[in-house]
C-alpha cells in the first residue's frame, strides 16, 4: 500500500494539557504531522518526548516510514505574540504548505484575567489576529479554535445549546467571544477560502491512560480536578474550599459542571479536522458562511461534592471540605447540550466519570511532581 502524505497541522498550545492530548490523537491517526507552536508559559517541553514515546508504543507491527514520521513532533518554542517568529514557522513550509491550524494556546485563569485584562487581551486576542493574518498570507485557511463554555455566562437554560446568547463574565471569557467573532467574520468575508470551527469545551478531566501525559499547571492549580489530584498526592493540603453550597437547582447546593474525559475531548478535534476535510455535511449546499460552533461536553452535570466523592473513590484520599462564600463570577450550572456535535461531527464523550478520575489519579500518582522529576 502506498503511503498518503501526512497533512501538516500546526497545533498551538500543543505542550499544554488539552493540546498534548490533541497531539496524541492526531499522531494516532498516522495521517497528520503535528507542528507545535508553544512558548511553554504554562507547560513543560518534556511532554514532547513522552508523546513520541506513546505514539511509538501504539504503532502497529512493521510500521511504514510515514507511520514513524507521524510519531515525531516538530516543536517551536515560540510566543504567538511574536509575529516574526511565527512567520518563520510558516515560511519553512511556504504558501499552502500547512493544511490547517488547531489554535489551542491561550491563558485561561479567570481570576487573573480580571486583574491583568490587557495582558490577557494581548496574549489571547492579539496573538490570534496575528496568527490569522499569517495563515491568510500563507494560504492556510482552515482553523479549529479552542473556545469555552465560559462564553455563556449565566445561561438561561440548562442544558446549554450553542444558540444561547453569549455573555461572558470575565476578560478571559471575553477573549474567547472576541476570537470566535473574528474567525466568524473572516469566514463570512472570504467564503471561497476560509473555513472555521469553534469548539466550546466544557470541563475536561483525566489523562491518557498510560500516565505519561496529564495536566501539570505551572504554580498553584485553579481548577477542581487538578486541585483534588494534587491534594491526594500530598502536594497541597487536603482541605478543599467549596465556594457556596446554596446555589438553587443543583443536587447539593454546590456548583455543577459538565466534566468530560480529555481523551474524548481531544477526539473531537480529529472529528473537526475530518469535517473540514469533507465539509458538505456541516456546510450543505447554499451555505454562505463557512463557520460553525460546537459544544463539546457529556451533557451530564456533576456537582463539586459529587466530584469530591468520585475522586475519593479513585484516590482513597480523605478529603476535607470547608464551605466558604460563593466566588464572584461563579455560575450555578454549566451543563452542555452536546447534540449538535454528535449529529454533525459524530462526537460522543463516552468515557465515564469513574474512568476520568481513575486516569487522572494514574497520571498524578505516577508523576507526583508532574513533568519535573
Ligand atoms: N482546561 C480547561 O478547563 C478549559 C476549558 C475550556 C476551554 N479551555 C481552553 O483550552 C485551551 C487549552 O487549555 P489547557 O487547559 O490545555 O491550558 P494549558 O495552559 O495547559 O495549555 C495552553 C498552552 O498554551 C501555551 N500558550 C499560552 N499562551 C501562549 C502564547 N502566547 N504563545 C505560545 N504558547 C502559548 C501555554 O504555554 C500552554 O502550553 C485554552 O485556550 C483554554 O482557554 C480550557
UniProtKB/TrEMBL annotation:
This is UDP-glucose 4-epimerase. Pfam families: GDP_Man_Dehyd (PF16363). It comes from the Eukaryota. It catalyses: UDP-alpha-D-glucose = UDP-alpha-D-galactose. Mutarotase converts alpha-aldose to the beta-anomer. It is active on D-glucose, L-arabinose, D-xylose, D-galactose, maltose and lactose. The keyword rRNA processing does not apply. Residues 10-359 form the NAD(P)-binding domain. InterPro entries: NAD(P)-bd_dom, NAD(P)-bd_dom_sf, UDP_G4E. It comes from Schizophyllum amplum. Keywords: Carbohydrate metabolism, Isomerase, NAD. One of its GO terms (biological process) is galactose metabolic process. One of its GO terms (cellular component) is cytosol. It is an enzyme of class 5 (isomerase). Its EC number is 5.1.3.2. Its cofactor is NAD(+). GO terms for molecular function: UDP-glucose 4-epimerase activity. CDD domains: UDP_G4E_1_SDR_e.
